[in-house]
Amino acid sequence: MKQRLPWAAFGVVATLVGTGAGHLVASLLEPASSPVLAVGSQVIDLTPVPMKEWAIRTFGTADKPILIGSVLAGVLVLAAVAGLVTRRRFVLGAGILVALVGIAAFTALNRPAAEVADVVPSLVTAVVAVAALALLVRVERATRPDAVPTSDAPHLRLTDAPVAGSVPPAARRRTVLVTAGLLTVTAAVLGGAGRLITGLRTRPADVDIPAALRPLGPLPQGLEGRYDGITPFQVPNRDFYRVDTRLDVPIIDVDDWTLTIKGDVGREVVLTFDDIAAMELVERDITLTCVSNSVGGPYVGGARWRGVLLADLLALAGGVGSVADQLFCTDVDGMTISTPLELATDGRDAMLAIAMNGEALPREHGFPARMVIPGLYGFISATKWITTMELTTYAQKTSYWEEREWATEAPIKISSRIDTPRALEEVEPGETFVGGIAWAQQNGGVAKVQVQVDGGAWQDARLGPTAGNDYWRQWYLPWTAESGAHTLSCRVVDGKGNTQTPARANPFPSGASGIHTLRVTVAG
Ligand SMILES: Nc1nc2c(c(=O)[nH]1)N[C@H]1C(S)=C(S)[C@@H](COP(=O)(O)O)O[C@H]1N2
Ligand SMILES: [Mo]
Questions:
Q1: Element (H or E) spanning 54, and its range?
Q2: What is the pLDDT of residue 79?
């Protein structure tokens, strides 16, 4: 056992150094071709929907680091096996490492936007990993006290002549340890440099976004200042929820980026970022929601978007023909999201956004351009890192989520959330309030929010300011908290008198429904 542990470690260290080198090389060429990221994205693609749902629910936005972590852990176990095998047969151990990297190369080349050059980071990974393994083996053999390798197959022995008996065991162990340690540090430095370079290659902050033709006035003051705990009326970019299938953030150079509008249109057009920024820009306050948001969940946010109306883009392409029934959007990496054409063009402010809350889109939220369509869940509307809009039919093309049996039409269900007090919070007795947010896009927006305490009568809450029907509203209800346990619920009523349903539905396939209810304890 004692003998074997170092060999397993050799395999792991060699793999880490190789991966770090591959990651660095990828950061210079095409970050998505990094062996770690390529394999990670593939794993996400192959993960069954229920498991993905569970990961999002359980880990929230940490679902990606956790997936990357699991992939790495699995790879390292195999790397350890490779190291153990190396003790007897170097060629076999190195072969396992190369095979492992081969899987990464295969996934990197299998990405939709892949080029032949995307194999380079994997090649570098393989070469560096095998070289590191050879170095470790050489150091180990060179410092062994006994000259004779244990293998009974002489032709497989490493050719180095060991230094017989001259090195004391402690010094020998130290040499091996120092070498392995140095290699591990090298791995971290290479991988870290890769990350850093990837980060520096696009800086949305460096991109200027022209003003809208008719800029919106400042948003009215929200309730958050006076009613602590209520979600801000406008969510700052850094706090905005993020949901997507990606592990990394795409690195897009604005100068290389284009948007192609094609398919059933008068003429295909290819627009650069500057072309779009030179069009008439509009500004809209729109609330975005994820279909995976459970009742009371965090995947909803309000922001001010600036960009061009979809209607203007389609007009630029000579209008839509009579065949298309879906707007099929593709992102920079081939991920697809489709919107029923009828919904996208029914007069709502469907737009291609290039700014969020007054700044270029953050990378996490689709830099340099994304779709935003009021009233539709993000998975059928909000394509980030968009590169192509194709006017086509559902008979011809199936988008990513549809292939996974999520709904084709998914209007956002009207809903509301209690932000404060929080579930199971211990509240001080006396005058306080219940507060939160509510959204009911289309159908006249939020008309009313009601709160129920301990199953009693539904009481009308006071509403915060409005920023239009596509935007959520904050609300609060003064509450005299009496000591004991209490149950709080809320519901929204839209402009057409539709009341949020108590009927529970899971997020799959078309969004959760039900009433947000929570329990609090008032101290006594
Ligand atoms: N390219 C791309 N766009 C995407 C997604 C994605 O996985 N890839 N996820 C969609 C989903 S499911 C949602 S809810 C919204 C979330 O947008 P946000 O992360 O900016 O909040 O983006 C949408 N756009
Ligand atoms: Mo979503």
A1: helix 49-59
A2: 95
Contact 361, 352 (CB under 8 A): no
Do 15 and 76 contact (CB within 8 A), yes or no?
Answer: yes
Question: What tens digit of pLDDT does each residue of 458-498 get?
Answer: 999 999 999 999 999 999 999 999 999 999 999 999 999 99
> Domain boundaries in the chain?
4-201, 223-403, 415-522
Measured distance CA(63)–CA(359) in Å, rounded: 27
Extract the tokens encoding 496.
């057409």
Query: Is the distance from the beta carbon of residue 329 to the nearest atom of ligand 1 less than 6 Å?
Result: no
CA of 378 to the centre of ligand 1 (A): 6
Does the beta carbon of 24 sit less than 6 angstroms from any atom of ligand 1?
no
Ligand 1 and 367: CB distance under 6 A = no
CATH code of the domain occupying 223-403: 3.90.420.10
pLDDT of residue 199: 77
Provide the token pair at 503.
């009927």
Dist CA 448 CA 9 (whole Å): 63
Q: Which one of 242, 379, 401 would you pick to mutate in the ligand 1 pocket, going by the greatest count of ligand atoms within 8 A of its CB?
A: 379
Ligand 1 midpoint to CA 46 (Å): 18
pTM for the predicted model, two decimal places: 0.77
**What CA–CA distances, in Å, run from 19 to 123, 183, 309, 402, 499?**
10, 12, 43, 34, 54
Burial string for 318-335 (b: 16+ CB within 10 Å, else e) reads eebeeebbbbbbbbbbeb
Alpha helix (H) ranges present in 221-359? 273-277, 310-316, 341-344
Closest CA to 292 of 13, 63, 22: 63
Ligand 2 centroid–CA 493 distance in Å is 23
Centre of ligand 1 to C-alpha 433, Å, is 34
415-522: what CATH class? mainly beta
